[in-house]
Design a protein that fits this description.
This is Leptin receptor gene-related protein. It is a single chain. The chain is mainly α and 131 residues long. It has one domain. The chain contains five helices and no strands.
């Protein structure tokens, strides 16, 4: 029951984040779909974590080089996702209002991804590996 409620809450927050992204693209005043390229960052964000989890040893060390490298790459992906709409707005490919909506969507989506890993990534009997 708790995992189902968490999954419903994460789905709801993901839908809200994607709604912000779509509003930044599809409103008639903005009407440019360049910000949808942020979706690529959403998909590649968890990949370093998956690779580090698969490759890294399961020791109880406080830190491992593989895990730290995964954090570094994930941070780069997240920062790039926030920088991309700012650059698009700066070169006037999109309007600043659309940039704000995309940044709000980014914040919600990345917090949703983080929440997914916090809820389902503990390694207990009910984990994200089942999905």
């Amino acid at each position: 029951p708790c995992a189902v409620a968490a999954l419903v809450a994460l789905s709801f927050s993901g839908a809200i984040g994607l709604t912000f992204l779509m509003l930044g693209c599809a409103l008639e005043y903005y009407g440019v779909y360049w910000p949808l390229f942020v979706l690529i960052f959403y998909f590649i964000c968890p990949i370093p974590h998956f690779i580090a989890r698969r490759v890294g040893d399961d020791s109880d060390a406080a830190s491992s080089a593989c895990r730290e490298l995964a954090y570094f790459f994930t941070t780069g992906i997240v920062v790039s996702a926030f920088g991309f709409p700012i650059i698009l707005a700066r070169v006037e490919a999109i309007k600043w209002g659309a940039c704000g909506l995309v940044l709000a969507g980014n914040a919600v989506i990345f917090l949703t991804i983080l929440g997914f890993f916090l809820v389902f990534g503990r390694g207990d009997d009910f984990s994200w590996e089942q999905w």
